[in-house]
Amino acid sequence: MILSMTGYGKADAEFQNKKITVEIKSLNSKQFDVNLRIPSIYKDKEFDIRNKLLQTIERGKIDFTILIDVSEKSQNGKINANAVENYHEEIKAIAQHLKLNEPADWFSILLRLPDIIKTEVTELDEEEWKKVDQTIDRALSAFTQFRIQEGKMLEQVFIEKINNISALSKEIEKYESERIDKIKARTQESLRKLEIAYDENRFEQEMIFYIERLDISEEKARLSNHLNYFSETMTNEKSQGKKLGFIVQEIGREVNTLGSKSNHAAMQKIVVEMKDELEQVKEQILNVL
Question: What H or E segment, with its residue span, contains residue 31?
Fold first, then answer.
């Protein structure tokens, strides 16, 4: 089964006065690269979150976010009266020292200064974390479904391209005997133009040796095996992106060898078409988990 490295999942939950939103996004990457954006109250759970993501996502560049929306009535921020008083005295002293007018609107200035709003630090409630953990699981489930859907589309692309390469490789066969005859005739014509006397038997022996070097039977057989192996690997229960990438490299080697040995315009044109199909597979294989 093909799984895409591109994924998206989101889940929401309510806990007391809080709305919890978990969002997961991923793009292709060779490694597991995660960027966590979570409220400070959940920092102690960061290791657990990373492990959970690694077990499910495995590979990719991941953005993971937990957003907490708290109702206004429950906001626990308070004005730090001591800080306000200290800032007020310091500003007055500086104004007197520099002979400046004191601010006309004290509050608009003081309330913008650091540490004026004091937030009470609360410990993480285990029931709240249980709800958050469940929400993460639901977001991961949605994320996995997204990957499966994207993977099905990739699989259809691969099936089409691999079938096209297989069909093109069979088209080469009709040119093989013609290619040999043309090579032989071209060589004989060159010898006649040079007016060189040659032994027919020796010529036939040399031609057999030369034609054996141009034989593409092994390349075609290996190419067919690689194409079949690619298709078989796609049907595995677990996504095999890296393995499919290695198989594509082997397919490319055989196609390149066919091109270098073809020595025939029509065959070379077919090889170019095969390379075009394979290049499209290479582009998409980077997005397979």
Answer: none
